Predict the 3D structure of the following.
Amino acid sequence: MKGYRSCSYDPELFRKVREGVSMRQVVEYCGIQVNRKGLCLCPFHHDTDPSLRIYPDGKGFYCFTCGTGGDQIKFTALYREISNTDAARELAAAFDIPINVPVTYREKREAEKIQRRRRELTAFIKRSRMYLTVYRGLLYMAVRERNEHFWEGLGSLSRVEYLLDCLEQCPEELFADKKAVKKIGEVERRIADWHVRIEPDGTVSR
């Protein structure tokens, strides 16, 4: 009689993942920002106006433009271009969902790398939005009041507004652009040169 060999198959894998992580968490895990209405730019077609709806209570997602829809696992599989099973295992590793299927060292390292990148991207978006918005306000004021920063206002407003648009529509590409990141860093220093201090809550003081 052949000896019994344990199997790593977990018939509850998909259920555990769907119950262990929300649709919104998965979308943000992939580096995509969701607005207050539960909408985001669809990564499965060229989208300029948020058309992908994130449904609460584990009901999944659906794009009203290209018709792509599914659950947390399907979204990850499509976005990462991997199988549904690999997507489920990746999410289990990323969100520490206990499953019987062993998570390899490589899979765990990959999930940790993605999580770290996601945290860095979120911090970049928050900080950049704050400084660019404040700088835009200062530039508008300079143009309106025709003060000593008048010419800087005329020459920089369009660039700042372009960066803000990119921050909302394609934050990952902006974060990957070293020149753009450097430019935003210069904005932060420029605000300081104007003797303006930004408080943690985003308010401005002089």
Observations:
- The chain is about 55% helix and 5% strand.
- The CA atoms of residues 19 and 58 lie 7 Å apart.
